[in-house]
Every structure is written in C-alpha cells, then in structure tokens.
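User: I'm putting together notes for a lab meeting next week and I want to include a structural view of one of the chains we've been expressing. I don't have a solved structure, so I'd like a prediction I can at least talk through. The sequence is below, exactly as it appears in our construct file.
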Amino acid sequence: MEHFSHEHPLKLIDEAQRNKGDEEILCYGCRESIIGSAYTCSECKYILHKKCAELPKEIDHPMHIEHPLTLLSYPPYSSSSCMCNVCKIDDWKWFTYHCSICKFDVHIHCASEKSEIEHEGHHHPLTFVERSSLFDCDACGTKQEDVSYRCTTCPFWIHKTCARFPRTITRSYDDHPLVLAFSLPTDYHKFEQFCRICHERVQPSQWSYHCALCRYFFHLKCAMVEKEPLTPSAVEEYLDSDLMNFPLPDKSVDAISRYVKLISLEDVNDIAREIFHPSHEHPLILLDVQSDDDEMINTELCNRCSRPISVLFYTCRQCNFFLHKCCAELPGEIQQPLHAEHPLCRWRLKYFFGYRKCDLCKKFTSGFLFNCSTCNFRLDVHCACLPKAIKHDAHEHPLKLEAQISNNRCSGCNNFSRTIYGCATCSEFNLAICCVNLSRTFKHEWDHHPLTLSYPPFSYHPDDFICEICEEDIHPNYWLYHCRQCDQSFHTKCIKPFDWYENVKFGGTLQVENHPHPLVYVRKSKSKFPSICSQCGQSRDGWPVLECARCNFQLCPDCCDDIVESLPSTS
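Assistant: Thanks for the context. Below is the predicted structure for the 571-residue chain, given as structure tokens.
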C-alpha cells in the first residue's frame, strides 16, 4: 500500500515473516510493540501496525464537535511534538489527529478509544471517561490525573494507561517474562510481597506483574520503567576485575587482609619475624598456624579483631596475646568512604575488658577502633576495612558501598538499612552490611553437612521452605541456609542471630586488690539466678562481667576500670 506517512510502498506481512531478533520493534504510528500483522518497508525499517496503517484520514471527535480532525504523521509544530488535549500527555511526536483552525490535537490512542470495553481485570463493562480526572486508581494504587475507564455498576475506576498495560512483558534484567495479575494470587498470600524495584509492599487487591517461576512481584509502573544503562565512564570504576568476592568462605579476616594489601607499599616478601607493636607492651613473635603443632592456637582469637587465629600471626606467649599479621599491619590512619570528611585514626581501649559500639554495625568491640574525634564517629576494624565496591554471588553486577539519607530494604533479609552495598547498574539490588558478612558455608549442630548460603530464585525447589530451628515458613524471596543432601533449611537470623558481643574477646583474667582470686572476663547469659555487680549493684544479665566462679563475686567493666585505673594496661 501507499501510505501518506512514508515515501516508500508498505507491504503487509504476518508475525511469522518478520525477523524479530532480540530488539523490541515499535510501531512508528503509536510507539507500541509490534504484535501480529504489520505493514513494513522493504527499503528501510519503517513499520506500522495494521490497525495504525488503516486508520481513517479524518474523524469527528466528541470533544471537538466544531471541526473534523485530520490524521497527521506527526504534530505540525516546530518542535514536532504536542500535548494531547484529551489525556494531557505531553511531548507526543507520532500519529496525531489535528484541527488546524483550533490547534486541537488528539493522539491516536485517545482518538480510537472505545466508549465501552470489556476488561479481564473487572467483571463489569468499563466506560471511557474522556475528561482527565485526579483519582486513586484501583489498578496501580496511585493517585494521579489521567483519562480513565470507570465502572457504572460499582466504584471500580482505573487509569487509561493501566487499562492498556500488556498481559505479559519482558524486562532486560529478568530471565523470564512477567505476567499481569489483577490481584495477588492466592498461593502467595502466606507472605507479604514486595516490589523487586522500589521494595515497597505489593497490595493484594491491586494489579501487579509477577514471575511464577522466581516468585517475584513488581508494581505495574515500576515494571514498565527500565533504568537507562550507565555511560562507560560511570561504570568503569565498578568493573575492576580485582574486586573482592563475597560471601567469604567463613568467619575470616579476608577483608582486613585484602585491605592491608591494597594500601601496603612495602615488599610483601619482607616479613619481620619479631615486632614491637603499639597495641602491646612486649615483643611479638611471628608464627604460622599451618606449620605450628600447638593445637591450642587454632582455638585462640586475635586480640584486635576477635576472629580466630589463622595463617600468619604474631604472639606474645608471656601474655597469651595474639595478633593477626594483617591486623598488625593496619595503618594508624585511614580514609573511609563512609566518613569522607575526616580521616579515621586507629585507637584501642586501655584495658582488655573495655568495649565500645561501632557506629555502623552497632556491635560492641574490644579490639581496634578507627575513630574521628571531631565527629565522635567510630568504626570497628571490620567495618573500617570494608571495600568501597565488591562482587557478590547473589547478583551479577558490582555493588558499591553507600551511606544513604533514607533507609533501603536489603535484598537479602528485607530489613531496612541506611548503609548498603547497592547496585550501580540496575539499582534494584541492595545489601545490608549484616548480609554481606554472612559466610558462604556454616557448620551447625542441626545438620552434619555444611549449610550453604542460598539466594532466590529457588526454581530448583518449588515447595515452601520451613526453618528447622523456629519451625516457621521462610519467605522464598530472601536468603537462607540450606542443605541439599538433607533438604533442611534455616533462616539466616536463626543460624546466625545478631550478637552484640560478636567482636568482643572474652577469657582474659584480672587480679584486683579487693578480691583474693583472679577474675575471668565472661559474658553472663540471662538465667533465673540474676547476675549482680558486687561493687555497684547493677544487674549484669546478658552483659560482660569479670567474675570469680568460686565465690560468685562479680564486677562490671566500669567498676573494674575505676579499680585498676592506676594499673598499667594488660592484654
């Protein structure tokens, strides 16, 4: 056919004849995806829906009865764009019905809109309301101005744009097509469902897109927005092939060791066999776990990071003091992207029984702190050594360390966090620090195999997961520990509950003048027999305390600090 909108002849072909490829093909008349038969140009890429190519050249419209409207291939203005006088959509640049006398424009969607439609999302016919209105849409749940479809039998009212959403869509970052659901399917009512993009709740009564295989949900309008890819210069810094890969194999000091390597200017082969370190008063001797036969060493913790001693470490046998080689090599001052205003200076507590809270992970530590005295800001050694960007097995793109003004939902546990590792490429994936620090495998008494940290989608396991510890259902959209051999599953929070004192090293002993026996630094668990400080009378249930097990004599760290203030610091 010869069409007024194009200089070449157009030929009608069906869907099977088209070379689809991977790229979505859009109609030059309405800018919607080509589905079914279409008119195409054999000389160029021009293509029109059959219905768009066969639109009448002139129509009468009820909102402009004075004059007929003429079909144009684009708006007749210098900008080649217009605002539709029916739905008020701005910057329309394609097929337009136009009145040259009144400058009245209607894009072809509004011009061809039926006065009444049957929609599978509602059980009554819907009437087209041409006048734009501000209302709460029953499909998407948002309040915005739009032309609409309204039910005259019941209060159902939806935006015209929502009524036109396709039954299935494909997004660039998703493995499967997304299917439109007109309410939350019954199979998913067991859990609250959250949008994979904005992380807000998906209301059961509203429309959404979902993938049944992955058990993912998306708000209507979130699913239709594709994030523009970053420019090469913006992506470059996140594509470093040397980024540290998470999760770490176990509760290790890999992050500290990696940080030291990145900032070290010394020859890594030049290892001192004996050092004097400012964190201890005696010389320290270098040992290697792999070559040392003393089995006791494998159960000891580093005095400055509270992680198990591994590979190379320094020790003072006189004081039972242990220090990882990487911890010994930490600088006295660092720059941390979470506190870029000022450098953070290394600082340690005076006595082994002291502890302070990290401002990032909120856990107490008895080891190294990196402190900004100007802002009263401090990080424990683990948070201070967090890389500015990482790779994680749970996501395909690099993740950047960010401190946000508002809370973000973690994609691993669904909890809120202001400090996250966020994806700079798709902006749909965030990880809280607690989930970043989960180990790849975990040994637990409930299973004789190592449990593996597992991430959704769980297409290999279509049944529900039930935690063996708390016996509650596990949300299929969030991380869990799983044993495939035994088909046992566990909440990450049940396997590794939040521990305020994870980074505090217990076990040190202290002799005080007002008690004849040594006091051991322990953490008192809550029990029916209350733990009371013998000096100040404060309850110590669940808190660190120095106790004499023989006499049931206890001192809280604050009282010990007052008693031994005049003594030299110990390990």
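A couple of points you could mention at the meeting. DSSP finds eleven helices and 40 strands in the chain. The first strand starts at residue 11 and ends at 13.

User: Perfect, that's what I needed.
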